[in-house]
Batch of 2 targets.
Target 1
Amino acid sequence: MSQICEVIAKQNDNLKLVKTLEEIYQEILDYLKDDYHVDDIEITLIDLDSNEEEILYKSSKILKEEENFVFELIQSEHTKIKVIVATRDTEFMNNNRFIMNLALQAFSQTLYNKLLKGRLKDLTLIDNVTGLYNRQYLDNYADNILSLSNREQKKIGFLKIGIDQFKAVIDEFDYQVGDKVLKVLADTLKKSVRTSDIIVKIDGDEFLVILMNIINSDNAIMISDKIIKNFSEQKVVVNEQTAQSLMKTICSGISIYPDDASNIDDIIRKSDIALYEARNLGRSKSFKFTEEETNTIDFF
């Protein structure tokens, strides 16, 4: 028994060195296939408070029910991991079920720790008011976005979105109402673009919409105008009892990668300049960056 435990411990130490969750799933499956005659596995995360289940991994198939073995592995007061093990060698599994449980308990804890670490990292990339990506996400992954565009030789539209007279909302009402406006805008942005596009809450009342794989600037302008129209039709409830509502407008500054700039800092700066120009035109306006029309702008 001690030798078996040493083998399990060594395999678990190897799992801790694996970088991604997908690799951990595959490592576990490969080990179980080699040492325990396992054909397939399914790994599910279960919230013990709500009984909600999330399938983390499912290999090619799970065999018929009489060839499945279920292991429920407690990870915390609120969470457990369920592993369904499928094997045609049911006799071997019955004889080694205790050992299998020891192995899966060790492996599942390593998996759970990796899962938590990844989700905590994801939380640092999310704006807590709108649920959108934050500036940290952009800083971390902007180069990857541009690299993908270069490989596919596709253009990317950058829309810098700002709420018109947002400070007046805070001054007249409060920050809670301001947060409601931000949430309505975030929801409008999500409904107005494709799931492949990226929306980032930059700062204060400003958002960045990254339009992946557009044909030309006309596409970006069309989507910008669509977003402006959609948001102008939204009502933000200020007072639930009186049904008092507020309607706001936005402006949008547009720049195109790689037409307008070759790096992320410059492309965002140029969408900033375009937003500045849009706001100079009035409310509910969009402006496409051009060198000719913006080369005299002085922010100071």
Target 2
Amino acid sequence: MKKLTLFLLIGFLSISIKSQELEVLLLAKNDANLLIKNYLQPVNQGMLFSLNNGWYHTAKTHKKLGFDITISANASIIPSSSRSFEFIDSEYQYLSIENGSSTINNAMGGKNNSRFSVRIPEAGNVKVAQFSMPDGIGDDLPLNAVPAPMIQASVGLILNTDISVRFLPTVKNDEFESNLFGFGIKHNLMQYFGPLDKLPLNISLFAGYTSMETNYDLNSIPGLSGSNQEAIFNLKAYSIQALASLDFPIVSLYGGIGFEKGTSELKMKGNYELSYTIEGTNTTVSETVSDPIDMKFDVDGIRATAGVRLNLAFFKIFADYTMHDYNTISTGIAFSFR
């Protein structure tokens, strides 16, 4: 869980730290934010789409105090067009490509061969440093997709209404802490249609919200000098949908259409001691920057889902496919009673 979350949430930071070139990139200040944001965009957006999925596998609600426990895996597939970005020199003040391609593979892409120069005029001198772009690791993931495992529990209340709570077990140690919590509500509309509620058709309204927070202490990472260093990631995603299902004894066919929105924020806090060389000399100089990374990612739009569920008494197996910017596959099992 820790390794998966670290990649998904601060993937660029962990990859760059291994190459010991993150501190060089941080010299570029605002340019660093733009480059890292372009590199991380599909990971953050894929997480938002994944966490908005897997809420339901039928439009039918439980009887009063009926319940289910669901274990699911959601995977947002990153299209090939979103696995790279173009480095446009005019958008950057201090960065330039020293050699290699201007088409950069992002975190969900493949290998990179580009090396960058950082040149910052200051006090009559020019700071000079170089770094290489880290490779993406999307090719190492099934379907080149951003995954999000989930555990969820739902219970039936009055008025044909289900309340759902989803979570991942909190991971915490001296360096790392992560938690996820979500809340959903589903209300069956068939009760208002008189004798039609005897049909296998169910129509519901659903709303769901998921929040994920991760803090990672960077002070213990080799090669990063400074103090009070941490990476902070906050994610919030919600959706509002109309659901429909045909629920037969052995199989259920279900789907939904609606609107979704999500926001994620990534910050790198603390003080970082950076080193650079004055151009034309062998002089190495150090300086400290504070809170160098602060970026935000957003998604929103219409979504449509279609799926099938196999009903084996209280044991359910389901899979569905959602169409939005990054199409998402969800699959899982559920233990459902009443």
